[in-house]
Amino acid sequence: MPKYNLTEEQEKKLILREYRALLRALKPKLKPGDKELVRIAFEMAADAHKTMRRKSGEPYILHPLAVARICVEEIGLGVRSTICSLLHDTVEDTDITLDDIERQFGQEIARIVDGLTKIANVIDVNASQQAENFKKILLTLTDDPRVILIKLSDRLHNMRTLESMKREKQLKIASETVYVYSPLAHRMGLYNIKTEMEDLAMKYMEPDTYKEIARKLAETKRERTRYINEFIRPLRDKMEKADFNFEIHGRPKSIHSIWNKMKKKGVSFEEVYDLFAIRVILNSPHEREKEDCWKVYSMVTDEYTPSPERLRDWLSNPKSNGYEALHTTVMGPQGKWVEVQIRTKRMNEIAEKGVAAHWKYKEGAADESRFDKWFHQIREVLQTADNDSVDFLQDFKTSFLAEEIYVYTPKGDVKMLPVGSTSLDFAFSIHSAVGAHCIGAKVNHKLVPLSHKLRSGDQIEIITSNKQKPSEDWLNFVVTTKAKSKIKDALKEEKRKIAEDGKYTVQRKLESMGAGYNSNNIEILADFYKQPSTLDFFYQIATKGIDLKELKDFHVLGDKLEAPKPPKPINEIRPESGSNVTDYTKKDAELIIFGESSDKIMYNLANCCKPIPGDDVFGFVTTGKGLTIHRTNCPNASKLLANYGHRVVKTKWAKNKEISFLTGLNIIGLDDVGVVNKITNLISGEMKINISALSIEANEGIFRGSIKVFVHDKEELDELVHRLKSLNGIHSVDRFDAELS
User: Fold this and answer.
1) Cβ-based burial of 20 (10 A; exposed 0-12, middle 13-18, buried ≥19)
2) Torsion angle (degrees, nearest 10) of CA 35, 38, 39, 45
């Protein structure tokens, strides 16, 4: 990264240039007096941040200016949001108070800035810090969606300038972005921002794959453009003949979405079918929008054969974030699949600017209510949510940031639920009492269990019984936050009733010992039996989980209990048998853990992603197990990094060829004579790699093999994969995480 070296004079010019660009973008929205207000906000922020610099070395004020520009240019917000963006970091980081802002700009702007002022991030004390911030943002979001839009702009600018941050900070911020902010951008209908956030996060979390796909996209750009032009030509002629006012062009695919398709479908870059995508935007009057879109659809499908299961009709049933369009995938020339999106100018603006555009088209009251409904649901959950913040964040993701399905009540009313919802979620969405007494449901007139997953278009009738009450295993199959929190409340209530018996037992025991039944003694006992709360302690006693026989070892002083002294701890920590904890007291420890002396550290290699030397990794401090090493592209990485960023330890591999790591490869190819021989010869003979296990099955001309091998590091593994792929008849070679058997 180039070193920052501007003189004071150049800096002033740069800040002024950015400020003027912001005013130019705002120009169409400025009413008399607005320019003056924006200037006051800018001067207030510039003065407050004047001594501050960003990690890159540039003056801090450039950040609020950039955030304000994203709000105006990319989301389409106006003057008030600009003022809030300029001031969004002042209350937290400078001497300016909310009262100062309210005096100068009024209550509304002060309220939004307060929503944006993150809980003072002195240190990331515990996991729920991030989730707590997030809860606070959401509470304000339901009062004023601009909070979240400015927050997203702030996050987008941080992602764009992530380069100057330390590696572990990059990982934490990128993970958080994928985990919470990009789904939120998607939910607010900001597709461009969502896509850019995902791409930028991938650039830091999986740099090699990112560079590889970017390179392939750049290499194929010319032929893709040529192909798209050839595809568009006959459509353009038809639409011009029919007198449509339209534009039609190719649509770039995001690196992240290509990577997702490659992983999901198990295909190579070349086989991702919608690398080719085009968009038709019609300029149609409101009353003719649907009709025109379908006319264009029939022109496209007359010219090219459509894939019937790839039609997506969001005209009749727009997504809950307001998205409307028709999508179809057709077979173009040279046997290539092409995705075609058809939408009008109004729909396009809503697709690009999301919520902000909604407010502009407020006449469509039905659309408006979709967002209102969503906000209303969030509000409902936030008011009742007293559960653990990390759970809350996870529930919020599955409940509110997932795609949704539309289902019907027996009377034909539509209910919107997140994908993956079950009949029990539906029951709770009607009323919490219906949910609590639900014993089953009829879906499309067929009897189904509580855990039955619903699909769009299902009609559901709930069957209840007064004898039914919620049970612990219900939590395993509901996805909506409302259902989860109501079930947890009911279980807590039930637990309280049972715990009453435990309370009575403890009271009798303590009195017989001559100790007082008071909160202090109860806490000493709960602590001694390692129970998270006194309620759990009483519950365990009532259900015979604890039998209090250790009470005889306690001392009673006056009426106060004193716990027996624990035995002296043994100095050395013995790894659990069978765990792959490696005690590297050797001087050639091959994992360097920053900020700690690496030759004393015990660590595990995570079972979820089985890292080997050379993988991009981070260390994660787990309770009770010391340090666990994960790959940065591990399926659990973004959750760990987003929720528990403070537990991440920077780690990297040092060279050490003595230790081998077990990893596995899946190989698919044509079942040819001698193919097994070729493979084993290459691995053991040529590359001298030890094979731990090998299983191969052939079926109708195709063979699938899985091989477990011991490699020293990622370079050796990459070399092996490369050489296996170049053998004749081998179709694909993929890594999987092998278990020692």
Assistant:
1) exposed
2) 180
CB atoms within 10 A of CB 547: 10
- Which of 62, 63, 57 lies closest to 6 in space, CA to CA? 57
- The more confident residue out of 576 and 139 is 139
For residue 391, the model assigns a pLDDT of 59
Could you give the count of Cα atoms lying within 13 Å of 498 in the half-sphere of its Cβ?
16
Distance (Å, rounded) from C-alpha 311 to C-alpha 329? 7
Amino acid identity of residue 586, one-letter, is: K
Nearest to 389 by CA among 714, 641, 131: 131
Helix (H) or strand (E) holding 666: strand 661-670
* Pairwise CA distance, residues 690 & 675, whole Å: 19
Distance CA 350, CA 315 (A): 13
Question: Is residue 324 within 8 Å of 343, Cβ to Cβ?
Answer: yes
Q: CA angle at residue 70 from 140 to 372, to 5 degrees?
A: 35
pTM: 0.65
pLDDT band at residue 344, thresholds of 50, 70 and 90? very high
CB 300 within 8 A of CB 328: yes
**What SS3 class is residue 260?**
helix
Residue 76: left (phi > 0), alpha (psi -120 to 50), or beta?
left
pLDDT tens figures, 281-311: 999 998 899 999 999 999 999 999 998 878 8
- φ, ψ for residue 393 (rounded to 5)? -65, -40
Residue (of 12, 147, 14) closest to 85 by Cα position: 147
CB atoms under 10 Å from CB of 417, counted, come to 21
- Structure-token pair, residue 18: 């950015």
The owner of tokens 């006449």 is 363
> If 0-12 CB within 10 Å is exposed, 13-18 middle and 19+ buried, where does residue 474 land?
buried
- pLDDT for 454 beyond 80: yes
pLDDT, tens only, 53-107:
888 888 999 999 999 999 988 888 889 889 999 998 888 888 888 899 999 999 8
CA–CA gap between residue 443 and residue 455 (Å, rounded): 10
**Which helix (H) or strand (E) covers residue 257, if one does?**
helix 255-265
**Helix residue spans in 269-405 (DSSP H):** 289-303, 345-353, 355-360, 365-384, 389-400
User: What do you get for the CA distance between the two ends of the chain, in Å?
Assistant: 47
559 given a catalytic annotation? no
Q: Within 10 Å of residue 300's Cβ, how many Cβ atoms?
A: 21
Q: Is the pLDDT of residue 576 over 50?
A: no
Q: Which of 11, 18, 93, 494 is catalytic?
A: 93
Longest dimension (CA), the chain: 99
Look up tokens 């407020």; give the residue: 362
Write the single-letter amino acid at 740. L
Burial (CB < 10 A; 0-12, 13-18, 19+), residue 421, is buried
* Amino acid sitting at position 534: T
Confidence (pLDDT) at 124: 40
Write out the DSSP string of 152-215.
HHHHHHHHHTGGGS-HHHHHHHHHHIIIIIHHHHHHTT-HHHHHHHHHHHHHHHSHHHHHHHHH
Cα separation, 276 vs 267, whole angstroms:
16
Annotation marks residue 511 as catalytic: no
In the set 92, 303, 380, 489, the catalytic residue is: 92
Residues in the chain: 741
